[in-house]
Amino acid sequence: MSLALQVRLQSNRERSSLALPVTQIVKLNGDKSSTMTSIRIGIVTVSDRASRGEYEDRGGPAILEYLSQVLTSPFEHLGRVIPDEQPLIEQTLRELCQTEQCCLVITTGGTGPALRDVTPEATEAVCQKMMPGFGELMRKVSLEKVPTAILSRQTAGICGSALIINLPGQPKAIQECLDAVFPAIPYCIDLLNGPFLTTLESRVKAFRPRK
Amino acid sequence: MSLALQVRLQSNRERSSLALPVTQIVKLNGDKSSTMTSIRIGIVTVSDRASRGEYEDRGGPAILEYLSQVLTSPFEHLGRVIPDEQPLIEQTLRELCQTEQCCLVITTGGTGPALRDVTPEATEAVCQKMMPGFGELMRKVSLEKVPTAILSRQTAGICGSALIINLPGQPKAIQECLDAVFPAIPYCIDLLNGPFLTTLESRVKAFRPRK
Amino acid sequence: MSLALQVRLQSNRERSSLALPVTQIVKLNGDKSSTMTSIRIGIVTVSDRASRGEYEDRGGPAILEYLSQVLTSPFEHLGRVIPDEQPLIEQTLRELCQTEQCCLVITTGGTGPALRDVTPEATEAVCQKMMPGFGELMRKVSLEKVPTAILSRQTAGICGSALIINLPGQPKAIQECLDAVFPAIPYCIDLLNGPFLTTLESRVKAFRPRK
Fold first, then answer.
1. Topology (CATH) of A34-191
2. Is the ipTM of this complex over 0.85?
3. What's the whole-model pTM score?
4. Class for domain B30-191, per CATH?
5. Tens digit of each residue's pLDDT, chain C (211 residues)
6. Chain A interface, mutation test: which of B115, B148, B172, most A Cβ atoms within 10 Å?
7. How far is CA A31 from CA A36, A38, A70, in A?
8. Cβ–Cβ of A151/C187 closer than 8 Å?
9. DSSP H stretches of helix in C127-183
């Protein structure tokens, strides 16, 4: 986990260009700039073809659109598009969690059984704790749609103070999986001493147990 | 797994002061003392605050009350309250499974994503076999109550001849989880050549497949 | 994973003597012999008693019968009956996946919590990737029948280009588990660049997502 090995891959920290819901703007109270930097979310597309430009990345934009619709907290996203190379995936995840201080990193792609699919292995390699409940629930909801959902090896875990979640590659499956697990994400980030995430309750109701 | 490293932590082997159901007393037939020592169950509360006395341990007593209500076999319980320190949790689990010859060790607490939550890691470190079905089922039943159930990393495994099961910290969640998995526990202990556990069938129906 | 360590155990490559459904014969179009060798499936019974001949192997034949009923592709089966010894299980799995070039290896037995049950550990040791969705789904369907289903530690994984799946020992449970996961198996083998498996759709509908 040497930080000396960390390499900045891309630096597209620009704010999402997608329109934010009105509720969010109301909440900002003019203190937009300082709040803006506090919630950083990494979005990592793992795909040989997308990284070579042979294929349009649809997974990353689908995740960003979901977050833009669901999160009422302002957030900054850090996007990466990388090939299915385990050392590079590990390096990217560590960079986003450690150097870039993301509280949440969501990957898309590379979770299947094929030779080049190594996203879960890379995730496990960088995490100190695994969160098996995420993969179990996401496979369960995907299984209601397609019997091949059991082929997804997607997992989740904690790397430092960040939650990493693997999602499948298809935009439709991305939304189904995020709908299933998102209600638990803000409280998970609270437990990691991260920023306080708020959601559009009509879309996703974040659950925080009373102490 | 050196036994030389085992240290006795607390020695509160006194019998539960909770009243036992009538069915149990009837079954004892006056041979109480010799039978009493045959079924030993460890109950480990993992909590920094409870171990420092800043917080009343509610998880350990909830497990003991459950066992006292459900088990019709007489049993002896060995209680421990320890901080969220992985080496100490591992040492306590090994002591209870090996030195103290418990057939079942139930932990409460330390299963979440926070930095100090390391009970599943300690459990995995001392077990020769993991039992993923316990965690899957317990998360499934908890998920019917709260969406944050996926944050529980609770697992189970076999350490020597003992079954170790992680439970969450909240008494309500403890009961839900035990209700879900308890029907399988007596047969599991049979397969480990442990003592024959009987349950109050109106409460929990232990299942033993016909050979 | 040294191939030098691989030892041929038994060489019963004879074709299943079970009658094949008519649909299969129709599909063969006289090109039976060349197609016959292309799909090779390993069936491994892991049982101390069965391997000593003290007990009739019922698991292996139950798997073969299932495959003969469900697969419309012609296939060759390679059967093994071995004791619950982890090194021998690992060696057998590697031999079937690597030397014998099976695209699918199905084990039966050795998935419980008892001291001698080590099939999941052997499977994990030879696989480069684990497929947690198989075990989760098989335990879920078995749990609808018996509460002790959570005691099965059955898993699945990828060894080279082969899918290995652990099943329980009981013929009834074998069928329930295969019914649950079989719709995803042909596509999994596609993703591993293996042969194209077809099924009797009235029995099991193989699912292949449109690209």
1. Molybdenum Cofactor Biosythetic Enzyme; Chain A (3.40.980)
2. no
3. 0.85
4. alpha beta
5. 332 322 223 333 333 333 333 333 333 333 444 444 489 999 999 999 999 999 999 999 999 999 999 999 999 999 999 999 999 999 999 999 999 999 999 999 999 999 999 999 999 999 999 999 999 999 999 999 999 999 999 999 999 999 999 999 999 999 999 999 999 999 999 999 999 999 999 999 999 998 6
6. B148
7. 9, 12, 21
8. yes
9. 132-143, 171-181
